Amino acid sequence: MRLPRMVLGGLLGVLLVLGVGCNAEPVSLNLIAGSEIKDLEPIFVSMKQDIGIELKITYSGTLDGVERIRNGEAFDAAWFSHAKYLDLVARDKVKSQERIMLSPVVMGVKRSVVARLGWQGKSITWADIAGAAASGKLRYAMTNPSASNSGFTALMGVHAALGGQDAKLKSFFAGQRLTAGSSGWLADAYLRQQDSLDGMINYESVLLSLQKRLKEPLELLYPKEGIVTADYPLVLLENSKRDTYQKVVDYLRSDKVQRRIMETTLRRPAVTSVPPLSIFAKGLLVELPFPATEAEVNTILAKFLSDQRRPAHSVFVLDVSGSMDGSRIVALKNSIKKLSGTDLSLSGRFARFQTREKVTIITFSDQVSAPETTLIQNDANRQTIQAKADGLKLGDGTAIYDALETAYDYVDKTLPLEPDRTFSVVLMTDGENNAGDNYSTFAAKFQGLKAQTKAIKLFPILFGEGNTSEMNDLATLTGGRVFDGTTSLEGAFKEIRGYQ
Fold first, then answer.
1. Which pLDDT score, from 0 to 100, does residue 10 have?
2. Looking at the structure, do residues 236 and 364 belong to the same domain, yes or no?
3. How far is CA 78 from CA 26, 207, 226, 238, 444, in A?
4. Model pTM?
5. In this structure, is residue 35 part of a structural domain?
6. CB-based contacts of 90: which residues, under 8 Å, 6+ apart?
7. Structural domain of 458
8. Burial profile 208-234: b = 16 or more Cβ within 10 angstroms, e = fewer
9. Is residue 213 part of a domain?
10. Which of 46, 114, 115, 150 is 20 to 30 A off residue 471, Cα-Cα?
11. Please, are residues 333 and 392 in contact by the beta-carbon 8 Å criterion?
12. Which residues contact 267 (CB under 8 A, 6 or more apart)?
């Protein structure tokens, strides 16, 4: 039967409104978020299927993300593990927020260490932990507060618990032996180094998820002064997206999805209608106060980086071969200069070389320069490094592995002289090795190093025509991580600072 033209036209209009028969873009919400929520991506796929809303996510560190929001970068919403700092820095940007899931930031300690310290069955304080760390009896992992929300949250909590007393905070952070720019990478690194560590500060969910993979389970400590809980609020930034935002919130806070989040990520539900799993510690969690102003937060961060944590010794191995000519050498010089203090942004101030830090620069083409080390004590020392960056000169050839052998030989000799420093090695190259030793020779020599030298991680930066496979192999060999500098070399150097 042929339908009248009027009926056909009406049906076509309805179909067009409904988006049937055409390639209409799904409704989307443009998010800036912490990497912590990556484990929810399967749920985001289900959400798109169930309610037709797609999350378009830009992952970012906390400080960098908050700064981008404050500077007016266009995002519909933000999703970090908490919004306390965002509320202080860019309150006018926040239109609404709703917590989605909960995970306290706590310390997990090996059960044998808990017994050795006499903590079994006792109500432990942050001061107890600081005392054990200062005496060398507790060596732990924690993310860098300037790069990762778990470390940031822990720092703010510990600062409040210890009354902001500098001596106590120095005692507490004397026990940190492993750092990272993300809570997930920290957990993986702890797995590799668990024989030399006693515990880790991280989200409760991360610690619980590790238990079955560890040689020795961790006992989770909830110090009696209190903790800071990550409540993962979804924050609306763009009013015109309020309806879409609310549909996402309603979906994520539904009992079915809350239960799925809890069971798959081991975070606590944010709604009272979903009973928590028995794996979670019972009892009321005392919340520590969060700083009241942006200036207070920034002061706490600055003192941690420059005065309270174990000082860093950062070794940079830099390619100055002929292929770096032009825009590449300019980008390298600018990257080093920004780390030396020319980046005045919020995240740049905390990513720069810190007071008490030692910075060693080794350059290479077909020849490798002798290591040059600068102790950062003031702006004059930073200017010294800026001058070194400006003075970089190009050569021929690319002796990557000879340069790395020089770096690790330097570290091997320096480590015993600086037992209280945190060492790392960064490699930046834009090409493939074509002079001196090859990867296999370097790997064999690396395996022959002392255990404490082999524990120093290498962080290669992918750039130009660099050999991706060998950069990944180097990161695996040394327990480090590869960073992508192809889009922004400056961004890669800045991101690495969270691991130093």
1. 46
2. no
3. 20, 25, 27, 10, 46
4. 0.89
5. yes
6. 66, 69, 70
7. 311-499
8. bbbeeeeeeebbbbbbebbbbbbbbbb
9. no
10. 150
11. yes
12. 101, 102, 103, 203, 204, 205, 232, 261
Instruction: Check whether 1 has a pLDDT greater than 90.
Output: no
Query: Within 10 Å of residue 46's Cβ, how many Cβ atoms?
Result: 13
Residue 257 belongs to what H/E stretch? Answer: helix 255-265
User: 369 is written with which tokens?
Assistant: 């320069």
Same domain? For 366 and 453 the reply is yes
Decide the pairing of beta strands 458-462 and 483-484: parallel
- Structure confidence by residue, pLDDT tens digits, 447-491: 999 999 999 999 999 898 878 999 999 999 999 999 999 889 999
In this structure, are 247 and 395 located in the same domain?
no
Q: Tokens 């100055």: give the residue.
A: 320
For residues 385 and 353, is the Cβ–Cβ distance under 8 A?
A: yes
How far apart, in Å, are the Cα atoms of 436 and each of 118, 397, 441?
54, 10, 10
User: In the structure encoding, which two tokens stand for residue 413, read together?
Assistant: 């000799």
Q: Are 34 and 149 in contact (CB under 8 A)?
A: yes
Residue 347 CA to residue 181 CA, distance in Å, equals 13
Q: Where are the beta strands (DSSP E) in 206-351?
A: 218-221, 228-230, 233-236, 268-269, 312-319
